[in-house]
């Protein structure tokens, strides 16, 4: 009898755990590419069954790797999209992201790793009650294409610019 009860309790716990994760879904915000290598990524917003944001996910189709960040990480230092050695090359940050309506983001990029110079672009992620979208200068975007900065004798030292399409 104890074995049956214990089995039923374990089944209930497993069912509850699976049900909690079964409703999470990934919403494609943008594709991510560059002019230097085979980067072919997809940036997703992870939402729960009520369409409330719980995190971000970047999946690189070229190498099959996936990075994930909780919403709380956006304000604590950001989601480090690209890291090269000790350099955080691309970081997505937000201090006002609301899980039910979005917020403003700063796409912070290393311009020159030799000097440490950085630059940034302002973005907005918005939920209109039906769809989540990302905007640059008021225009909805579906692709981030990073243009790398190259220097003679050193090669790639950072991100020169990003094109939104």
What does this protein structure show overall?
The chain is an alpha+beta fold and about 160 residues long. It has one domain. It contains two helices and twelve strands, in the order H-E-E-E-E-H-E-E-E-E-E-E-E-E. It has helices at about 1-20, 75; strands at about 25-35, 40-45, 55-60, 65-70, 80-85, 85-95, 100-110, 115-125, 130-135, 140, 145-150, 155-165. A six-stranded mixed sheet has the order 4-3-2-1-11-12, with no helix packed on it. A six-stranded antiparallel sheet has the order 5-6-7-8-9-10. It starts with a helix and ends with a strand. Residues about 1-20 have low confidence and may be disordered.
What keywords describe this structure?
six-stranded antiparallel beta sheet, 56% strand, 165 residues, single chain, alpha+beta
Summarize the structure.
This protein has 165 residues and is an alpha+beta fold. It has two helices and twelve strands. Helices cover 15% and strands 56% of the residues.
């Amino acid at each position: 009898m104890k074995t049956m009860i214990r089995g039923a309790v374990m089944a209930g716990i497993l069912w509850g755990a699976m049900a909690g994760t079964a409703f999470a879904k990934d919403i494609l915000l943008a594709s991510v590419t560059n002019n230097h290598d085979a980067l072919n990524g997809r940036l997703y917003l992870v939402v729960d069954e009520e369409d409330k944001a719980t995190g971000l996910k970047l999946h690189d189709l070229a190498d099959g790797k996936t990075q994930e960040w909780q919403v709380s990480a956006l304000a604590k230092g950001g989601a480090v999209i690209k890291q090269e050695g000790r350099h955080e090359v691309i970081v997505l940050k937000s201090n006002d992201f609301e899980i039910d309506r979005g917020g403003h983001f700063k796409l912070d990029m290393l311009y020159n790793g030799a000097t440490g110079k950085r630059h940034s672009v302002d973005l907005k992620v918005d939920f209109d009650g039906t769809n989540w979208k990302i905007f640059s200068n008021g225009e909805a975007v579906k692709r981030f294409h990073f243009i790398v900065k190259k220097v003679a004798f050193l090669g790639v030292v950072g991100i020169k610019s990003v094109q939104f399409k």
